[in-house]
Specification:
By secondary structure, the protein is of the alpha+beta class. It folds into 2 domains: about 130 residues, Alpha Horseshoe (Serine Threonine Protein Phosphatase 5, Tetratricopeptide repeat), CATH 1.25.40; about 90 residues, no CATH class. The protein is built from 10 helices and 4 strands, in the order αααααααββαααββ. α6 packs antiparallel against α7. The radius of gyration is 18 Å and the shape is globular.
């Protein structure tokens, strides 16, 4: 967290900072503004980075939920910013902790059902067009799970949300995927089944970490 006396300095540095530094400063400032209930500053910052390819989805979700608990009408502007950013950069999206799929999971409780369903549709459609040769492996006390495409990963991730909002559609998506049906029987809570788990890094493979969840991505060179 940025120290209070450094906030003004960070704000001045932000426009000229290089991409990695800018992304870090943005996240720190967003967390600070949300914690201090400086919601106008937080919303302005998100609007400023709305067209960046490293959008702070995790910070946006935290702000959305904070505003939603206060029944603020401004919360939907945040949801729409996140959705629009995903649509701009979905072709280049890397599944990870700070992505739109996690944003949907985090905000589904407070977002309007129709908005969540639209977002899920867009994420699944985008995943269908991604490299089908990428494999995602996760482990828990129940065993190891492998998902064989970005689409399978997203469906596994978002189906628990979809079942809450549109059970008929969830069943329709699962009907022709017997393997995924079995996986969801074993892990009915979806991604929540894998908290407090890490996978070891193997040579020439990329590991991304969802909090304490280890997600091993095969078939793609490390960044």
């Amino acid at each position: 967290m940025i120290q209070k006396q450094k906030i003004a300095e960070a704000e001045q540095l932000l426009p000229s900072a290089t991409a990695p530094v800018r992304d870090h400063i943005t996240k720190e400032l967003l967390d600070h503004y949300t914690e201090k209930k400086q919601f106008d500053h937080a919303e302005a910052l998100l609007a400023q980075v709305a067209n960046d390819d490293e959008y702070p989805f995790d910070g946006a979700a935290q702000l959305f939920n904070t505003l939603a608990k206060q029944q603020s009408p401004e919360r939907m502007a945040i949801f729409n910013h996140a959705l629009n950013n995903f649509e701009q950069f979905s072709r280049n999206e890397r599944i990870g902790q700070n992505d739109f799929g996690n944003f949907i999971e985090a905000t589904a409780t407070y977002a309007p059902p129709e908005a969540v369903l639209e977002a899920i549709d867009k994420v699944l459609d985008a995943a269908k067009s991604q490299d089908s040769h990428v494999h995602y492996s996760m482990a828990s006390s129940k065993g190891t799970l492998q998902l064989n495409s970005a689409y399978e990963f997203r469906l596994f991730q978002l189906l628990p949300v979809l079942e809450e909002l549109d059970k008929d559609k969830a069943e329709s998506l699962l009907r022709d995927d017997l393997a995924l049906q079995e996986r969801l029987k074993k892990y009915p809570e979806g991604m929540d089944s894998f908290t407090a788990v890490r996978l070891r890094v193997e040579e020439n493979q990329l590991v991304d970490v969802f909090g304490e969840i280890g997600v091993l991505v095969d078939g793609r060179k490390g960044a």
